[in-house]
Amino acid sequence: MEMNGGYAAFFSRAGIPVVHMSYLDDVMRKLSSVAFPVKHTQYDTFQRLQDHFDPELKVHARVAQVAGELVRDLSDSLFLPFNLLDYAQLLRDLYFSLHIHMGSLGHGLDLSILDSAVQNFSAAAFAFHLRQSNLDTSDPMAIRRVNDQLLLLERAFLDPVGLPQNPYKKHIVLSPAESPAYVDEMFPGITDEFMRFLDQLGAPEDLRPHAATLHKHYHLLVQTLVQAADSLAEVVPPQATPSH
């Protein structure tokens, strides 16, 4: 998914799940970086679209049909089709990348607490889906509770303060990093501070403020992952008050 797309604010600021759809033929796949070079310019007009890209709007019609079918499928699904184990794997991959790049840098970060938080989230995701598979599907409120937890999970990854270099980006896992990273993908806030730290190595500038920001955001990241895992815990409904 294009992390800097026009819809990025939905998940990076508001924690709202999004889906990205596009059409690429064989030619456009080879030119994927310039498939629509006039996008977001003054030449991005409906007339140019008809003249050069989709004269009969056939592609737009097909994509709209796919989108409509997706909406129908979501509406008909008993549970939101979110696999939290995929999210757990993403966190594991980001941690692994961080472990590799931070291992050779004198950062003083205790990576074991992040490892523990990621493992805790993985266990919580597995337990959540296990409960989901054994749920009484005749209980509409039980289904509602599970779907609410699935839908609101993204918001558990929001930090009200935002990323260290961009307070408007609140999602500490999926927000795009500010700086172009020349390393493997890591957590966005960590990536930004890591790149700043590397850029200043060997320079006369004092690195302690950068290191302090890195440590502060790192511990906030760990705390947020723990809270996200807690949000997947079983929700016990209040007992009904017996009538007299």
UniProtKB/TrEMBL annotation:
<dbReference type="InterPro" id="IPR036757">
    <property type="entry name" value="TFR-like_dimer_dom_sf"/>
</dbReference>
<keyword id="KW-0862">Zinc</keyword>
<keyword id="KW-0479">Metal-binding</keyword>
<keyword id="KW-0378">Hydrolase</keyword>
<dbReference type="Pfam" id="PF04253">
    <property type="entry name" value="TFR_dimer"/>
</dbReference>
<dbReference type="GO" id="GO:0008237">
    <property type="term" value="F:metallopeptidase activity"/>
</dbReference>
<keyword id="KW-0482">Metalloprotease</keyword>
<dbReference type="GO" id="GO:0004180">
    <property type="term" value="F:carboxypeptidase activity"/>
</dbReference>
<dbReference type="InterPro" id="IPR039373">
    <property type="entry name" value="Peptidase_M28B"/>
</dbReference>
<dbReference type="InterPro" id="IPR007365">
    <property type="entry name" value="TFR-like_dimer_dom"/>
</dbReference>
<keyword id="KW-0325">Glycoprotein</keyword>
<feature type="domain" description="Transferrin receptor-like dimerisation">
    <location>
        <begin position="109"/>
        <end position="232"/>
    </location>
</feature>
<keyword id="KW-0645">Protease</keyword>
<dbReference type="GO" id="GO:0046872">
    <property type="term" value="F:metal ion binding"/>
</dbReference>
<dbReference type="GO" id="GO:0006508">
    <property type="term" value="P:proteolysis"/>
</dbReference>
<comment type="similarity">
    <text>Belongs to the peptidase M28 family. M28B subfamily.</text>
</comment>
<protein>
    <submittedName>
        <fullName>Putative neurotransmitter catabolic process</fullName>
    </submittedName>
</protein>
